[in-house]
Design a protein that fits this description.
With 310 residues, the chain is α/β, with parallel strands linked by helices. It has a single domain, classed as 3-Layer(aba) Sandwich (UDP-N-acetylmuramoyl-L-alanine:D-glutamate ligase), CATH 3.40.1190.20. Helices cover 34% and strands 23% of the residues. It has ten helices and 13 strands. The protein has helices spanning 40-50, 65-77, 119-124, 127-130, 143-155, 185-191, 202-210, 250-263, 268-282, 295-308, and strands at residues 3-7, 11-18, 30-38, 54-61, 84-86, 94-100, 105-110, 134-138, 160-163, 180-181, 216-220, 226-230, 233-237. The strands form two sheets. A nine-stranded mixed beta sheet has the order 5-4-1-8-9-10-11-12-13, sandwiched between helices. α1 (40-50) packs across α8 (250-263) and α6 packs across α7 (202-210). The model has no long low-confidence stretch (mean pLDDT 95).
Length: 310
């Protein structure tokens, strides 16, 4: 069992459904209000635990009922909470979501405690990273915190995965501590200071990201699979054929599966295949955490992806 530390985020989602989205100063009637677990860091931690990893969450929550609810989730899923920190001045991060029946939505988020997770926290609690086999960070936490985690990991021979979501321009930052950068197609372009719909071919985008100093670029492309660029060139890892219902959270599933593969000392090809299989299967169910598959289900389809890699 490999140890995977997620230096990342938790966000509680407060959701209500409506027939149509309100305009400014308008009140509309909604229904089906519910609260659910969210945040890329917590998604990755749960997905990794379901794959059999010794998963640890390293991040900040508020001293409130949402934070306590998150701790209950970690206990239910078998994720270690030793390195969960409390913010002193801000609440647990929240996302307010108005979801319309036509598929559109309005989302407002408050970064809350995630914004207090700092490089100093990483330095003070570095054992959360140095005692792991892999560390993963999305960018719902501060970029300087994610890069601090990557540098601590790198200095101790621990591979660091940076998932630039939400994406930021990375061109002025030192990325030599990053083992793998894992954006989707739009995020990859934003990382280079381009619009998310820039027409530059994906392979050229991935090569330019690789030139920023990371060892591997894994550009996730939905049903087209993953474009992998390293010093040895470019390869494509195809997605698994599945009945897709909901792709939300599939990127988090990929990062978790890839991290678990690395933590088990698998080859890059095998680790990427594990990530792709996990992500593909996660799209067969709705919601995020509810969709993440357990290891036995992933193992039954893993060979299909591995054998399809050119």
């Amino acid at each position: 069992m490999g140890a995977v530390t997620i230096a990342g985020s938790y966000v509680v989602a407060l959701v209500v459904d409506t027939d149509r989205l309100p305009v400014a100063e308008e009140t509309v009637i909604g229904w089906n209000y519910h609260e659910t677990h969210g945040g890329k860091g917590s998604n990755m931690a749960v997905a990794a635990a379901r794959l059999g990893a010794d998963a640890r969450f390293f991040g900040k929550i508020g001293r409130d009922r949402y934070g306590e609810g998150f701790l209950e989730l970690l206990r239910e899923e078998g994720v270690r909470e030793d390195h969960v920190l409390y913010a002193e001045t801000t609440p647990t991060a929240t996302g307010f979501i108005i979801s319309c029946t036509d598929g559109r939505n309005i989302i407002v988020t408050d970064r809350g405690a995630n914004g207090e997770f700092s490089p100093d926290d990483v330095t003070r609690r570095s054992e959360a990273i140095t005692q792991a086999d892999v560390v993963v960070s999305p960018l719902e936490i501060r970029l300087d915190t994610a890069l601090a985690a990557a540098c601590v990991a790198h200095s101790h021979g621990v591979p660091a995965i940076l998932n630039p979501a939400p994406a930021e321009d990375l061109r002025s930052h030192d990325l030599e501590c990053v083992f793998a950068l894992t954006p989707n197609e739009g995020e990859a372009r934003v990382c280079l200071g381009l619009p998310p719909d820039d027409p530059t071919p994906d392979e050229e985008i991935a090569v330019r990201l690789h030139e920023l100093g990371v060892e591997h670029v894994l550009l996730t492309r939905g049903e087209k699979g993953v474009l992998w660029v390293s010093s040895e060139g470019a390869r494509v890892v195809p997605a698994l054929r599945v009945n897709v219902l909901d792709t939300v959270g599939a990127g988090d599933a990929f990062n978790a599966g890839f991290a678990v593969g690395l933590s088990e000392k698998r080859s890059m090809t095998e680790a990427i295949a594990l990530g792709v299989t996990t992500a593909s299967l996660s799209t067969e169910l709705r919601e995020t955490i509810l969709s993440y598959p357990h290891r036995d289900k992933v193992s039954r389809r893993y060979a299909e992806v591995l054998s399809s890699i050119a």
